[in-house]
Design brief:
- With 262 residues, the protein is mainly alpha-helical.
- The protein folds into three domains: 3-83; 101-177; 185-261, Arc Repressor Mutant, subunit A (Orthogonal Bundle).
- It has twelve helices and four strands.
Length: 262
């Protein structure tokens, strides 16, 4: 298994961190490395209740892997969108980037959350997360078997991160209520365009695994993009297995202009 797809314990450094991310984006500028961002954040006085060590972990272990690569584009996009989007919509974008940086969370959302949601279950427990991790270790998705204490912590971190992003009930508990979760129109537009501008074909866009974070199969994604066409963001022609999508905007900057003004 490719190293980039192996599960790590990086979620231990921080879960959703939505408010902290917004503050760091406000401080961040495109010329800043993670080390520079940490220093500026430390000196800003905007994290009065966070120790220097904890702030370093947030910046280097959470913010940087999620939002500073490639070339800081995710951070640049999020910085523009943060003031314009509601917190739930913004959190959906953070979920996408957090899952890209943490395959264990991505698979947990796609397999466990949506599996339980589709099966009509009303709760997801830390024991469900534990069983998911144990199966992953059996399948060789970790470099080595984790200690029992690590499995226990990561089980709570998986459900806690889902709660932070709005998929599960908030609060500190071992069993959480499943919250209905639907992709927001600005998030759908951003994801579709980001894949298109990255060079994905139309069919590859429909099949991209990021949509699975929102419970969407390719046929559902096509319906989402048809909704984008109703907003004037694209033109969709679909017949049999052939899908043609004409994209109105030629750059992410043009799309961000629209999303921040709507």
């Amino acid at each position: 298994m490719a190293e980039s797809f192996l599960y790590t314990t990086q979620l231990q450094a921080g879960l959703g961190l939505i408010n902290e991310t917004k503050t760091l984006l406000d401080i961040w500028s495109p010329d800043m490395s993670a080390a520079m961002l940490y220093q500026v954040a430390l000196e800003s006085g905007r994290f009065p209740r966070v120790t220097a060590r904890r702030l370093r972990n947030i910046v280097t272990e959470c913010f940087a892997p999620r939002y500073l690569g490639p070339n800081g584009q995710p951070a640049a996009h999020l910085k523009r969108l943060a003031p314009a989007l509601s917190t739930p919509d913004f959190a959906q974008l953070l979920l996408i980037f957090t899952c890209r940086a943490n395959p264990i969370l991505a698979d947990f959302v796609r397999e466990i959350y949506w599996g339980r949601y589709g099966g009509g279950h009303s709760q997801i427990t830390n024991d469900d997360a534990r069983a998911f991790i144990e199966r992953a270790m059996d399948d060789g998705k970790t470099t080595k078997r984790w200690a029992e204490s690590t499995v226990q912590r990561m089980s709570a971190y998986l459900t806690g991160c889902c709660a932070d992003y709005g998929l599960l009930e908030a609060g500190t508990r071992s069993s959480r209520k499943v919250i209905p979760y639907r992709i927001a129109p600005p998030v759908s537009a951003y994801l579709a365009y980001s894949l298109h501008l990255a060079g994905f074909s139309n069919n590859a866009i429909l099949a991209n695994e990021d949509w699975g974070l929102f419970g969407l199969a390719p046929e559902d994604v096509l319906e989402e993009i048809k909704r984008l066409s109703l907003r004037g963001l694209a033109i969709v022609q679909a017949a049999a297995d052939v899908v043609r999508i004409s994209w109105k905007y030629r750059s992410m900057g043009e799309l961000l202009d629209v999303l921040t003004q709507s």
